[in-house]
Design goal:
Largest sheet: 8 strands, mixed
Structural class: alpha/beta
CATH architecture of the largest domain: 3-Layer(aba) Sandwich
CATH class of the largest domain: Alpha Beta
Shape: globular
Distance between the termini: 32 Å
Number of helices: 12
Number of strands: 19
Helix content: 25-40%
Strand content: 15-25%
Mean pLDDT: 91
Low-confidence stretches: none
Length: 386
């Protein structure tokens, strides 16, 4: 099968497939065609692709491929009936794009719907691979912006106390952020609405911030559940109190398919110490900090810096592309055989776990969003949105 790799839109520095993945794809029977300069911002030149067995062409030619691989969903007007597109479609936030795929007869495979608790899907989990890098880079951005050193230093001029870092949330991104801050020499505090996260936080060197009345607010898919307004306020008050004298605060709270919850209200920012830095990892979906400006770094009246980078994995474009490419290659080679897409209702990665299975999540139907002009039957939540 002919597989087309597109150049991403302006502002996206990653590429969906890197040259090192081509050997596995070619061995699996794919003829790979790459849009010219698709990998340039990830440090992969056209010559690397051709040296590893790919063909280079223009966008119109690449878009003729039966299978399109990308990070962002291309403009559906560029696609045609019968095509298969594998990308990060974020379908719950972009139902109008899913509808456009339905209307165009395009089969949409959304990689952010990988069932992350399924052991077979671990090598395909783009959320985890990209969130891991985002957590690492968030701490580095905070460390580069805070006006003090991070580790404890004993010098002839005096002792420098280690920086205090607070990580709000301890999913994949949060745990990497905790571990990175700890390696830099900081004293790290971390919170999570999932009580089960305490042991994980402590295992990477953090100190767990417990909130009175905390339960295990985790859904069947491993994501944090939406919380009541009362409990959110309680968590905010407790964690922001711990963060009031912190040097770096990293916010990671993300609810699947919904706007990011506010975990740092403006009232808390005004109480933070001068020189503190907030790195908001969810600026692209509304932000965890009430004062975050997406895509910008601002300084408040009380000298608190708020960093709202919208694409943290993209700031590590080479590594992020390599991991994304590995995820996509594992996925694509597992669901195609001799050029045919194998859609089976028994494939948990494509359609989710069967009802009654320990991994079953109601309304979460796996990677296959739509095909043959209809929403997949298991995408009940998505069907409701549309």
């Amino acid at each position: 099968m002919r597989l087309g790799v597109l150049k991403e839109p302006e502002g996206e520095t990653r590429v969906a497939i890197v040259p090192k993945s081509l050997r596995k794809l070619n061995k699996s029977g794919f003829e790979v065609i790459v849009e010219s300069n698709a990998g340039i911002t990830a440090n992969h030149h056209d010559s690397e692709y051709t040296n590893n067995g790919a063909n280079i062409s223009d966008r119109l030619d690449v878009l003729k491929s039966p299978l399109i691989i990308s990070i962002h969903l291309p403009d559906v007007s560029e696609l045609h009936t019968g095509q298969v597109v594998a990308c990060v479609a974020d379908p719950f936030r972009n139902p109008e794009k899913v509808q456009a795929c339905l209307d165009a007869g395009v089969t949409l495979l959304s990689m952010d719907m990988i069932p992350r608790r399924l052991s077979r899907a671990q090598s395909m989990d783009v959320n985890s691979s990209q969130d891991n890098l985002a957590g690492y880079k968030a701490v580095l951005l905070g460390a580069a912006s805070v006006p003090k050193g991070i580790p404890m230093m004993t010098t002839s001029a005096g002792t420098v106390r280690p920086a205090k870092v607070v990580i709000m949330g301890s999913g994949v991104a949060g745990l990497q952020a905790i571990a990175t801050a700890k390696r830099l020499g900081a004293i790290v505090y971390a919170s999570d609405v999932r009580k089960s996260a305490a042991e994980q936080i402590e295992s990477v060197g953090g100190r767990f911030i417990e909130v009175d009345g905390m339960d295990d607010f985790e859904d069947e898919s491993g994501y944090a559940k939406p919380l009541t307004g009362e409990f959110i306020q309680k968590v905010n008050d407790t964690v922001c109190d711990v963060a009031s004298d912190a040097d770096i605060i990293v916010t990671t709270a993300r609810i699947f398919g919904r706007p990011a919850p506010i975990t740092v209200p403006s009232s808390a920012v005004s109480s933070f110490k001068s020189g503190a830095v907030i790195v908001d990892m969810n600026a692209d979906v509304g932000g965890n900090c009430e004062d975050t400006v997406a895509g910008e770094t601002i300084v408040t009246e009380n000298d608190v810096t708020i960093i709202g980078v919208k694409n943290l994995p993209g700031t590590l474009s080479n590594t992020a592309s390599m991991l994304y490419s590995n995820n996509l290659t594992s996925f694509i080679t597992s669901i195609f055989n001799e050029g045919e897409l194998l859609i089976s209702d028994e494939d948990d990665v494509l359609v989710g776990a069967p009802e009654g299975d320990d991994l079953y999540v109601p309304g979460m139907g796996g990677v296959l969003i739509c095909s043959a002009g209809q929403i997949h039957p298991k995408q009940t939540k998505l069907g409701g949105v549309l």
